[in-house]
Design goal:
mainly alpha
Length: about 190
């Protein structure tokens, strides 16, 4: 195995560890030292791969979106339902994303710009998906542009509720119920 491949594997290991630490402590409570310890490196060794905490945060967020192929791929309503089901099988990723999202609303948070730009793209992608599924008006009378923020809010809101009480919140089932409200025919 060459040095480049080993370096990529080590970076991936560090990102996974950062996901775990952020899920446990939030971004502000996570430290490079804690991530380094989790992967068996010194802080200086970790900084060889990620020179700053912000650089590591960006890598974590990019990795999460890469796993979900969000928001750059073309979505269909049925694929969204599958994504929600997939998220229910990986609570650590959902917890990390939710913690970072919640913290990013503060003005000085390093992920604020990432999430602001991401939500702009996701809303546009969701509006495009809704338009391709329903045309210029959904069965409920709303336009795709008016419905897209609601769709995103339901997805993210369900994640928070599920994380807080997974025994009481059926995230995939509740999302399928929401799709029925949009006019999607049940399977």
């Amino acid at each position: 195995m060459n040095a480049r491949v080993r370096g990529e594997e080590r970076r991936a290991e560090i990102v996974r560890a950062a996901l775990e630490v952020i899920a446990e402590r939030g971004y502000r409570g996570a430290s490079l030292a804690a991530v380094a310890e989790r992967v068996g490196l010194t802080q200086q060794g970790l900084m060889h791969h990620f020179p700053t905490k912000d650089a590591l945060l960006v890598a974590v967020l990019q990795e999460r979106d890469r796993w979900d192929a969000v928001p750059d791929s073309r979505w269909r309503v049925d694929l969204l339902a599958a994504l929600v089901e997939y998220n229910a099988m990986r609570p650590g990723i959902v917890q990390t994303f939710s913690a970072l999202l919640g913290e990013s609303v503060t003005d000085d948070h390093p992920a604020r710009a990432f999430f602001s730009e991401r939500y702009t793209r996701v809303r546009a992608s969701m509006a495009e998906m809704l338009r391709s599924e329903y045309g210029d008006r959904l069965p409920n009378g709303l336009t795709p542009e008016r419905t897209a923020p609601l769709l995103v809010a339901v997805m993210d809101g369900l994640q928070y509720q599920w994380l807080l009480d997974p025994a009481s919140v059926d995230m995939p089932g509740a999302f399928r119920d929401f799709l029925r409200l949009l006019g999607e025919r049940p399977d």
